[in-house]
Amino acid sequence: MTAAANVTAKPRIRFTPTHDERTAFLFLAPLAAVLLAVAVFPILYSFYISLFSLKLTRPTRVPFVGLGNYTAVLSDPQFWLAVERTMLFSVMSVTAIAVLALLIALLLNQDFPGRRILSAVLLVPWAIPYVANALMWKWIYDSNYGALNGLLYQFDFINSYMVWLGDSDKTLALIANAFVWKEVPLATILLLVGLKTIPADLHAAAKVDGADAVRRFFHITLPALTSSFSLVLVYETMMAIRHFDLFFILTEGGPGDASHVVAWRIYVETFRNLSFGTGAAMAYILALATLVLAYAVIRTLAQRI
């Protein structure tokens, strides 16, 4: 019985790292430690904070509230107004980015004089840091010496200088315009890479069959760009939902609460109201919503590839 059991017993698999593997682990250990310290630990600790009523106005009393912060956030009407503004800003921005990037990518995919110069100029907005981009547009929109007022007044489109960022009906659109200007170059590059993967023989064969440019676009180009479009939509949607820089520098949530998006409310709740528990809960709700939305977009577009 003992001999039979030894014969039928499965051999144990032992993982013995080689010298090269041990050396690789040794060199990767500092990087892993840094990632744990600056990425993983803050994420886990912020979730831990979201379970407590932590306010710096009373730092010695931090009661455990469980999901109470999440319930308070989801039952706050002001939070849902911020969600509506965030959705409106995201839809405007991502739609404009997708359309403009597609048009520019189709243009750059053609051979014409100056194409390389135009491609280099296109990268300028992308290379500008977010804060510098926000300051630049703040100067452009300035009511006293802004370039937008000067240009429109010079061509008689307006009779006097306007306070652009002081109009609650125009604020989100103006901020979206600045965001689109910054994000279009990257989206264009991603779509241009997708265009380069389309075999030229497909368009040549379609021309022989009598298909015009519109039919070739909808039956060849657009289906081939599905994966690139999904990447652009997911990335730009995530950027738009969590964007904060432009709202902080251009309007600081104003005028009134016209530009109170979710990212701005997280900042106000955390660093102005000093309510870290509620701010952390709000941040996790935003992160979860972004994750779910990105997953839905990827699954929807993946079914069409």
Highlighted features:
305 residues; mainly alpha; 14 helices
Shape from CA axes? globular
DSSP helix fraction = over 70%
Mean pLDDT: 86
Sequence of secondary-structure elements? HHHHHHHHHHHHHH
Which runs of at least 5 residues are low in confidence (pLDDT < 50)? Answer: none
Structural class: mainly alpha
Sheet of most strands: none
In terms of DSSP E residues, the strand content is under 5%
Per DSSP, the total helix count is 14
Distance between the termini: 58 Å
The total strand number stands at 0
Rg over CA atoms, rounded to whole Å, is 26 Å
Structural overview:
The protein is 71% helix and 0% strand. With 305 residues, it is mostly helical. Helix 8 (171-196) packs antiparallel against helix 11 (226-241) and helix 8 (171-196) packs antiparallel against helix 12 (245-251). The model has no long low-confidence stretch (mean pLDDT 86).
Write the layout of secondary structure elements.
Elements: H1 2-8, H2 19-50, H3 68-74, H4 77-108, H5 115-127, H6 130-140, H7 147-154, H8 171-196, H9 200-208, H10 213-224, H11 226-241, H12 245-251, H13 262-272, H14 276-302
Helix pairs in contact: 2-14, 3-14, 4-8, 4-11, 5-8, 6-12, 8-11, 8-12, 11-14, 13-14
Offer a concise description of the structure.
The chain is built from 14 helices and no strands.
